[in-house]
Amino acid sequence: MYHSGFPPLRDPIVLVHGLCGFDRLFALRRPVAEYFPGIAAHLLANGHRVYSARLSPTAGIARRAADLKRFLEREVPAGKVHILGHSLGGLDARYMVSKLGMDHRVATITTLGTPHRGTTFADWGMRWFSRILVPMLRRLGIPHQAFYDLMTDSCREFNEEVANVPGVRYYSIAGQCEKAWLLPEWRLSHAIVGKAEGPNDGVVSVASAAWGEHQDVWSGDHLNLVNWPNRLARRKGVWTDRGEAYSQHLGRLVQAGF
């Protein structure tokens, strides 16, 4: 009997990180951090096959989608996959199946805290800091298109050009950061997004994160969606590891026939 009560998916799962993300970080050749901490281990224990992609941290969607395509062709060269993309990673997955001919390789896309309609925090940040940030990144040779791609106007154009693909099923999970979860570091961005868009995870609104045929809303901030703990929620006794929530969502896919 699997821990979650559901059998595993027939096809493997690919975890895709967001802006400034990674798959795993190493020190002295030993892994010291995961972008989705503990999630791969939890899913493996439930019989799933799991891969973690590494994309350019700050390049634009088109380049990151090409990175994701190359990752799949190298690591999972045959068969279909289920993609779980956090934040920008969800847009990368949508672009890959719509524009890069990978629709035959993807069974489902589940986006977690993905700003499908952009985020007003990106608008605010680029309005105030692009004159400093962009030249600095250029001097360092670091791509910066991702910061523009997350703006609301950019995502509006993205949605006009990147249509959902028949045969691929889309699901979404949003975060809602309320008092028990609202750490000091999220208060500014939470207020900016809240004023313009309503309930949000500190970066992405529930409305912007909604996509596809089913949406869940989890309590927590933007990083709690990928199982980074929230120290305030821990003190208040409301933090729980997200592993079981992931298993419940994948159970929904199993019940849908995958």
Verbal overview:
The protein is an alpha/beta fold and 258 residues long. The protein has one domain: 3-Layer(aba) Sandwich (Rossmann fold), CATH 3.40.50.1820. Helices cover 40% and strands 17% of the residues. The protein contains 10 helices and 8 strands. The protein has helices spanning 39-45, 61-75, 88-99, 120-140, 145-149, 152-161, 187-197, 206-209, 231-235, 243-255, and strands at residues 13-16, 24-27, 30-34, 50-52, 81-86, 106-112, 169-176, 214-219. The strands form 2 sheets. The protein has a 6-stranded parallel sheet, sandwiched between helices. Strands 2-3 form a two-stranded antiparallel sheet. Strand 5, helix 3 (88-99) and strand 6 (106-112) form a beta-alpha-beta unit. The chain is globular. The mean pLDDT is 93.
Helix-strand blueprint:
Elements: E1 13-16, E2 24-27, E3 30-34, H1 39-45, E4 50-52, H2 61-75, E5 81-86, H3 88-99, E6 106-112, H4 120-140, H5 145-149, H6 152-161, E7 169-176, H7 187-197, H8 206-209, E8 214-219, H9 231-235, H10 243-255
Parallel strand pairs: 1-4, 1-5, 5-6, 6-7, 7-8
Antiparallel strand pairs: 2-3
Helix pairs in contact: 2-3
Summarize the structure.
This protein has 258 residues and is an alpha/beta fold.
List keywords for this structure.
6-stranded parallel beta sheet; Rossmann fold; alpha/beta; 10 helices; globular; 258 residues; two-stranded antiparallel sheet
Q: What structural class is derived from the secondary structure elements?
A: alpha/beta
The tally of domains stands at 1
Instruction: Assess the beta-strand content as a share of residues.
Output: 15-25%
What low-confidence regions span 5 or more consecutive residues with pLDDT below 50? Answer: none
Q: Predict the CATH topology.
A: Rossmann fold
How many helix segments?
Answer: 10
- Helix and strand string, N-terminal first? EEEHEHEHEHHHEHHEHH
- Radius of gyration, in Å, reads 18 Å
- Give the integer mean of the pLDDT values: 93
Shape: globular
Residue share in helices?
Answer: 25-40%
- So, the CATH homologous superfamily? Alpha/Beta hydrolase fold, catalytic domain
Within the largest sheet, what's the order of strands? 4-1-5-6-7-8
- How many strands appear in the DSSP assignment? 8
**Span of the ends, CA to CA:** 18 Å
